[in-house]
Amino acid sequence: MHIAEALDSDLEDVLFVERVAFEQDEEAELVRALMADPSARPLVSLLAREEERPVGHILFTTARLEGAPDVSVAILAPLAVVPDAQGRGVGGALIERGLVLMSEAGVDLVFVAGHPGYYPRHGFGPAGRLGFEPPHAIPAKHADAWMVHALTPGLLGAVRGKVICADALDEPEYWRE
Ligand SMILES: CC(C)(COP(=O)(O)OP(=O)(O)OC[C@H]1O[C@@H](n2cnc3c(N)ncnc32)[C@H](O)[C@@H]1OP(=O)(O)O)[C@@H](O)C(=O)NCCC(=O)NCCS
Question: Which residues lie below 8 Å from residue 131, measured CB to CB, with a gap of 6+?
Fold first, then answer.
């Protein structure tokens, strides 16, 4: 398995992975919109291949923490691995590589709305109880899905507030599940 930053010429492979992993078009269309969204930049888009076959994709886009302009924030969304490559560490490797790149880029906090049984393996923990509000309300039964990974020590507990995401991600329906 090989991970590299996705080039413009990889876009169709990226969208293929998103469609096949989620079995619908919504995430692929979200990725397409985020790629074209100036407010999402800088972004990190990583594509995993096995041999030449695209098997996984992860996207990190720029966000901000309301009232804390000095804190550098990103959102991880979406992460996708094609079904027949799942369970082999592709998703985990994409997260870990992405976090290294985020750290090198000076990002302090990375947020995700995702499976609460999965992301804690990679250093994410509950964000709501630390005072971080998601861009749109997440239903109470999914509150644990809202998680944060601090790349800069000492920030958790010291800052709080609402996370403002890129325009293309700023739709209530992306935050309901
Ligand atoms: C979730 C997803 C990205 C994981 O990718 P992956 O490459 O299979 O993940 P990894 O191989 O790194 O990790 C596999 C482990 O995570 C676990 N896992 C996978 N999905 C999980 C979930 N939703 N909740 C809890 N654990 C999960 C697996 O059971 C496996 O556990 P094990 O190591 O104990 O056997 C992939 O299943 C996927 O694309 N699913 C469809 C799209 C999706 O839901 N994306 C995530 C949105 S938050």
Answer: 160, 161
Neighbour tally for 49: CB within 10 Å:
18
Is the pLDDT at 176 greater than 90? The verdict is no
- Asked whether 142 lines ligand 1 (CB < 6 A), one says no
Note the pLDDT tens digit of each residue in 88-105: 999 999 999 999 999 999
Residue nearest to atom 34 of ligand 1 (CA): 87
Does the beta carbon of 92 lie inside 6 Å of ligand 1?
yes
**Would the pTM of this model clear 0.85, i.e. be above it?**
yes
Does ligand 1 come within 6 angstroms of the Cβ of 114? Answer: yes
Domains of the chain as residue ranges with CATH: 2-175 (3.40.630.30)
